[in-house]
Structure formats: structure tokens, C-alpha cells
Amino acid sequence: MDSPATTKKSGLRNGSEEITCDSQAGPDSCCLSLKNGVVQPLLTDLYQITMAYAYWKNGKMKDHAVFDLFFRRNPFHGEFTIFAGLEECLKFLDKFRYTDSDIEYLRSTMPTSVEPEFFDFLKSLTANDILLYAVEEGSVVFPRVPLLRVEGPLIMVQLLETTLLNLVNFASLMATNAARYRMVAGKSVSLLEFGLRRAQGPDGGLSASKYSYIGGFDGTSNVLAGKLYGIPVKGTHAHSYIISYDSFDDLHTKTLAHKITREEMNILTLSCKYRDQIASDVGAIASEASEGELAAFISYAVAFPDGFMALVDTYDVKRSGFLNFCAVALALHDIGYTAIGIRIDSGDLAYLSQAAREIFSKITKKFDLPWFAKLTIVASNDINEETIVSLNEQNHRIDCFGIGTNLVTCQKQPALGCVYKLVEINNQPRIKLSQEVEKVTIPDRKAAYRLYGADGHALIDLIQRFEEDAPEVGQKILCRHPFEEAKRAYVIPSKVESLHKLYWKNGKIVHELPSILEIKNRVKESLATLRPDIKRKLNPTPYKVSVSESLYNYFHDLWLRSAPIGELV
Amino acid sequence: MDSPATTKKSGLRNGSEEITCDSQAGPDSCCLSLKNGVVQPLLTDLYQITMAYAYWKNGKMKDHAVFDLFFRRNPFHGEFTIFAGLEECLKFLDKFRYTDSDIEYLRSTMPTSVEPEFFDFLKSLTANDILLYAVEEGSVVFPRVPLLRVEGPLIMVQLLETTLLNLVNFASLMATNAARYRMVAGKSVSLLEFGLRRAQGPDGGLSASKYSYIGGFDGTSNVLAGKLYGIPVKGTHAHSYIISYDSFDDLHTKTLAHKITREEMNILTLSCKYRDQIASDVGAIASEASEGELAAFISYAVAFPDGFMALVDTYDVKRSGFLNFCAVALALHDIGYTAIGIRIDSGDLAYLSQAAREIFSKITKKFDLPWFAKLTIVASNDINEETIVSLNEQNHRIDCFGIGTNLVTCQKQPALGCVYKLVEINNQPRIKLSQEVEKVTIPDRKAAYRLYGADGHALIDLIQRFEEDAPEVGQKILCRHPFEEAKRAYVIPSKVESLHKLYWKNGKIVHELPSILEIKNRVKESLATLRPDIKRKLNPTPYKVSVSESLYNYFHDLWLRSAPIGELV
């Protein structure tokens, strides 16, 4: 009832044999939201298409528009955001084309009064006449600074809205979330993304892996993300692996060839010998430890002698897991291999990591094996930013966190409120008013700069009218609060960075795209330019985003003129 | 450091020209997480593959396993969940095959010590030997009842874990969320999903559209969801459309042909005439209303004369939007068309909807147009369950809610904690212990039944050992709490429903799959069998899930035997 459009209930799959995804359309539409790895242009809100028709019908095909994509508030109660998703946006522009089956669908969906020539027009649309300016992917960004500025034919620029928002919103949110985890965890701890099973759908999981890596994680459990993006993938075994072994009878292979000599050695016998030998050091009783767990560890060590990492909490970490792990690690050592470490997936992670470290130190002393004290301890049970802060306070001894649900769903704030606003049409500025001052948009085609101080820290972002001269190093620049007249400051920058680069012109990507590793480094470098008080978790200082004197006056004049008569604004 | 596996940093895209998604691999890998509309088997955690190798290496290729997929707690502080995602799981099984490029990637990722024959083994894997039992998609389900029971070769059943969880988790969460919105909104209100721009990535958006429709929504703004699933799509225009018009000069077309007579009539003149005529009824002043807004409305009405729905809050709802809308609606009426209504996207929605309804009634009386009082009012500003409850209390006059962020990200709880647990191997039961009793899994291959009372309401779910006879209508059945010995009840069911059906056998879907509309109806019917106190928003009554006497004893014996010696369980 909201719309002129109603759909035929066509293409519904029914029955067990026919499970192609779109029986009407050709193979081109068989990838749901993606076609050849790129988002399809039909992944948009219907109102973009109805607006396109209304514009077309009213002869606005040649109108030229400028839209800004930006957000109004940093996520997670923080004071910074990492911009990400740009490469996906550019791929989307590159492949933007309605297919014949798209057009057929739209024709069947829109009212019959829509003129047939409109569909020919849609069919011919490409992003060739679009200009896209953007902040560099991986940069730290702030409210109201345009992340993208999209210029071109009104209809086309409008049609891009929903998809660009979809591609930037979650990517930026995810990268920001990951960067926050990295900051609380510190540099010396390894962070792994383990969230695929709880992510919001298949691509939700894939995006989470990609952008958490960009934001500061070291790897993922997601194999496809490894394959597609070259991200390091990690993983060993689950509780089900451990409980699938009941006793030593389940061990089909009990020997392992020595790494150097290739002599076959009995890893079961060795493990049992060490288990008896170290039980009292570990504070456990050999006969009480789980035999199935030991069998599982041995079988895994036989499969991955150079990669023995054991999940130690299936039965009882202190009575069974630690002892069985150390026994197998010592047996492996006799066979020429060095174990990696343990994973703890439940219980008091601070306490258990300290207990493990203590045991590892005892073994180091007892057998004079320095590497044993340095074995890796991975923790992975429902971890979020707050857990890490608390574990830090308790002096945990964890080397690596595996983080799932809270990271990949961005539990604390599952959406970044990016918007896409018309700021200029046919060289005339446009302003969107709102009773909430914060929601009034800054009109006009704009440039944005970041001004740096002598110590290398970013001081302030400055938004100007596009025609204004760029701010210059060493010159005094008046920076004004965009809304509050009394708030203003003079800044003398030691360095000026232009935030927008032209990425798309004449139907081509015109700026070299960084690799995923370069984007990851950009995040690190960009965050390093922020003062610590802006990045801190508790009550961070807001970073200032200002407008030039000229833009301020232009903006506020227009605001006054646009307000309905008699309205106090 | 968590893993034996490290990856080559290959396949990174760099430069502006080369933007295929996986330059190493053939076109088969070009759809990111999806291949021919189906999730790829590599969308999994690496540990599934490392476990597969360790199982293989230890000769466990023929081990036969049973896994249950279930959740432990209903989401959103509620007491029910809607099960969804089954069709996607079956499509995944149907297409399960590692491609050559998958195998190449795994070979390059896993340690060189992995025996080459393992990759041949992986290459030959299919889901042909798997049995999949499931609850019917769209059913209301409860904690601990297996949603899926997957049986077959241990390695293969284990390999399915992450992907099945990914496919069920978000689908079920989303359908449940939508069903909750439907319940608070009531049956007479229309609900539209508007969340694509804030969803967690492209597929996050697509899944949100599909499963919110299944859960009880009436349509979506997502065009691709309309095309792929046959969901009704809705939408009109955005604020940018309104502000792209500045004055009547922007109107290229000022006439519209009468619906019946085809006589060209001047809609601008008519609209201006009505605007003057009704301004005082609307409580506005014609000269103060926005001319740009009126121009935008007229242009939209010309494009969609049968589908005129206007966004009225761009400038000022009461001083401008209402008046301009009514003027154009009356003009359209003279030209033979009936307007649809208005959308309000900001402000006090209860108050504004009442104000709009009052104005519509006045117009009805003034011009004797009964339909005017019944025009549709759509509201769409950051709406969640609580907003709707509050609007209900304020006697809103809204006919339709457009709901975005809070719906599609499941803001209140962005993940359903589904798990996938080994419960039997080679006909031996398996139990996963935990210090949290709630996390102990119920072992054994199990059947599940729903027992109904004489009034048609569901009384209790009963989980049994698979070998036990099904409960019978009219027979007294002892139902026991799975963990608490003292909690037990006798139930005499008037109807018994077996919850699990066999969906997959011999590599084929063996149970007819319902259409999306049938699943949607299943949700409605299934929810109708729940007592209202279980469904209510505030302090709902938990629905009981029980185990049979035989399963209780079997389970608790095993639990006792599995506990480490000396441990109090």
C-alpha cells in the first residue's frame, strides 16, 4: 500500500528437484546479491527506481547532482571511525548494468502506466558519467566529513544510493570494531576472527573476516576469506573432535616418524610415560585425566606434528586438559617436534591462563626446555572489548584471542548510520532541514582537509566550499563549528592533507587501489595520527570537524532562506 | 599461531584495471560466498578441514556420527523462536563439492606434511551419504530441541557444521524478530522491511528481506529480494527527490490526461486552486508552504497518477507537507485518480498521524469524498518493537510501518546462539560436559514430538530416544525436565506431532519443499498454537521442553559415568 508497485508472485521455487535460484532468468542472475563477485544494481530500494522514473518523466535526465555520503555519529560510543568498503563501491560502479532479466522484472513490477521508453533508458544506464571522490580506504574519519562525494546525472547518482550505503556501512562499522579490539588488546597479542557461524548470513561472515583483518586482526577461521583475500586462516579442532575419541582403542596410529631420523616412535607410550612423570607438577592425577582426550590429542599430533595446538577444556582444564597436553607436547619433543600451545574455550580465562603459564614454566625447569614456557595460549569464549579490558586488569597470560559473535555482529551497535544526501543540483546548493539541528545537512560541493600539528597529530578536519583555496601550511586558518556560532578556532597547520581523491571518472578507476595489506597498514598509520585521548575507551575526547568561514556563511544564509516563513530555526 | 596453517598472500588485487575477484581461480569462484546461488563449501572454519585430515589420518573415514543443531535460549528475551534457513541448508548439501581451485588453495594453505591422498579424498566428497532430519521451516521452536539432526560419515557431518550454523542462525533470528514485530503491530497494520542500506552487507540485506517476509512482514523495499523470492516490493521517493525541486519552474510537465476521458488537465493549476481552498482546514497558510515540495509532489503524481504516496516531512509536516499533499490528492481526483497516502519519516509519529487523520476527515466532509478519510499513513523513522508498543498506547493512526535498521540487524540481539553437537558416534552416545549445567548436551540419536491439548494449544515438547515408541494420543505420558530431577509432569495429549522429517537422503531432497508463501503461512499457523502468555512481550511464560523417562535415565547415567573421578557434577 506504500507504493504504485505490486509484484507478481512469480519465480517461487517449489518441489524438491527445482532449486535453481531464479528460474525465470538466465545464468547471469544466479548469484543472488552478487554477480561475478560484484553486487547487482537491483540490490537497491524500489524508491530509487520509482524516483528515476519520475525524474525521467519530468525531463530531468540532464540534471546534474552532487551527493555526499557521510555519518553523523561515531559508533560504539567512540570518537573515531575507520572508513572501509571503497573497493567494493568501485567494483559496483564498474559493473553497473541492468540485465535483461532485471528489466523484465521491473517491467512486471512497476505500474503499466510507466512508459516503455523508460526501460530502454534504464537498460542503457552505466556509471560512465559519474565522478566519485572518496577518502582513502582505511583512513580514520569523523562525523559529517563526506566519505564519498558522488557527482553526475541526477538519476544515476540517485540510483547508486542504497547500494553504496550498504557497501560502506557494514564495512566501516566492522573495521572500526576490529580496530577497537586491537586497541584494547594491545600490540603484542594476536587477534583471530572466529565468527562465521554467528555472522549475519554468508556474506556477512565474509565481510566480517575481510574488514576485521583490515581493522587490525591477524587472521580468521574463515577458509573462503583466506582464499579470496589472502588473509591468514587459522584453526585446529573442536570439542566434538575430542569427544569423538573414547579410549586408546580409538587410536588407529600410535607411532610417528622422528622429524630428523624418520625412526618410527610410539607416541602413545611416550605420552603415557610423560603423563605419569609430570602429573604432580601439573597438580593432576594421571589416572583421573580423560583417556579419550589423550587419545584425541595424540591423533591430532600425529596428523599435525608441527602444528600441535590442543583444545584443553572439553573435560576439566586443570584435572585433565593441561596434563594431557603437556604429556603429548613432551612426547612430540622426543620425536623431534615442537608443540604450538593450547586453546581454552570456557571458564575463568585469566586464572586458567596464569595456571597454564605456571605449569609451562615448571616443565621448562624440569626438562630444561626454554620453549615450553613460551607456548601459545589461545582464549576464545564469548570475548568482547570489555572482557579484554577486564582480562588485562587481571594480568592474563593469553597470547591470542579468538573472537566471534561480538566482533562480527558488532553487537554493541550493529549498524553505522551512514546517509547519502543531495547537496547540489545544477550548480545550486541544496540543504535538508530538520528539527534536529544535528540532522541538517551541509550544502554545496565541498572539499575536506585534515590539518596536522607540529608533533604529527591530526588537529582538526576542515570542510570548505570546493572553489576555496586549500589551506596552507604555516598559515593561520579560521575553523568554525558547523552549527554553533560561538565556537571557532584559529589553526596554523604544520601539514595539510586533502582528504578526497578522485577514484572514478569516464567509467574507469583512475586512482590505483591499495592491496588489502596496504589498507590494513593505512588503518594503523591513520590511527597513529590521533591523540590518545581521542582513542581511549572511556570518555574519549571528540575530534573536531569544522567548516571554513566562507562555507559557514554560505550554509547559514541558505539555511535561513530555506526555512519556512514564521518558523524559528 | 593458532594453527598449522599459514597462507600465501596470493591473489591480492592491486591496480585499477584488474578487479576480478580471484585471479588465481577459474570463473567458478567468482561469486564470493555463493556459487550458482548456493553457499560454497569453503565458507567454513579452517578447523573443520584440519579435523577432517586428523580423522582421515587416523583411519576414521568410516566412523558414523550423529550431530544435533539446536539453540539454548530464545532470542530477544522472548520464549519462542521461528526456525528458518532449511531450504538454504538443503541447497548447500545438494551442491556440496570442493572445486579444483578450492583444493589448490587448501593444498597451499595446509602444512606440507599433509598427505596428498587426503586432497583426493576431499575432492571426492559429496553429501550423498548424509541423512538430514529437520523441523519444518517456519515452525515455532524451543531451546534444546534439535532443529536439524545430521547423520552420516563423521568427517562429512563435521565438515557441514559452520555453514549449516551460518545458514540457520541469522535466518531464524530474522524470522523471529519479524514475527515479534508482527505481534506488537497487530494484524491490521501493514509492515514493510526498509533495511537494506543498514544491513550487514549485501547478503545480510537479502536474507533480512526474505526472512522478515517469512516472519510476518508484508513487503520490502529491496528490489532484488522481490525479483529472487517474489516478495512484494514497495517504495516511492526520498527527501532528496523533494529537495531536488525548488519551484514550479522545475516542472517540465504540468498537465496530466484524465484517467477516463484522456483530456489533458493542468494539475499545477488545480493543485494551487485546492491549496488555497483548503489551507485553513489544514491549519496552514498557502503562501508559507514550500513551493519546491508542491512541485515535487506534482511531478511524482504525474509519473504515478495511480500510485501517489507523498513523503510529507521534508520541510514542515504541518505547515507544508499535509497541505501540499491534500492539494495534489484533490487535483488528482479531478483528473480521475485516487491518491494512496502519505509517509512521515520524522517527528512525533503518534501525534502527526492523528493530525493527518483529522485533516483527512475534514477534507472528506468538505468535498464529500469518503475515501479521503481512509488514505494510508506510513511511518518510518527508526522504529523498533518498543516504539510500536508506545505508539499503540498513544492510539496512533498509522496504517503501515516501514522498518529498517532495528529489524534487519536484530539490534536487540544480533545473533542466535545455535550450536552443532556430536551426540552419537558408531552407535555410542556422546555427551559434552560443561561446568554450566545448561551447556551440557543431551546425548544419543533422538526423536522429538510436540504434544497438543484438547483446545489445540501446544502443551509441551518431548524429546525421546530414537528407538522409543512415539507418544500416543489419549495415553498418559511422563515428561521430565532434562536437568532437574524433581520437575516432571504427566501429559495426556489430544494430538501428537512428530517434529522431525527426513529431508535429505541418497543425495536428494526427499521431502517436498514449501514455497516461501507456504513457509510464511506455517509461521502464522505455528504461532497460533502457542498460548498467548508464551508469546507476550513482557515476562512471557517459558514453554516447556521435556525428555522421556527413558532418555532422562540414559542421559543422566552417561553424565555420571563421563564425569572425571573426584569431580562433583
Automatic annotation (TrEMBL), chains A, B:
Keyword Phosphoprotein: yes
Example GO BP: NAD+ biosynthetic process
Family to which the UniProt record says this protein belongs: Belongs to the NAPRTase family.
Gene3D superfamilies on file: Aldolase class I (3.20.20.70), nicotinate phosphoribosyltransferase (3.20.140.10)
Pathway connected to this protein: Cofactor biosynthesis; NAD(+) biosynthesis; nicotinate D-ribonucleotide from nicotinate: step 1/1
Organism: Trichogramma kaykai
GO terms for MF: metal ion binding; nicotinate phosphoribosyltransferase activity; transferase activity
Domain of life: Eukaryota
The protein's name: Nicotinate phosphoribosyltransferase
InterPro entries, alphabetized: Aldolase_TIM, NAPRTase_C, NAPRTase_N, Nic_PRibTrfase-Fam, Nic_PRibTrfase_pncB, Nicotinate_pribotase-like_C
Co-factor requirement: Mg(2+); Mn(2+)
Ranges for domain Nicotinate phosphoribosyltransferase N-terminal: 42-169
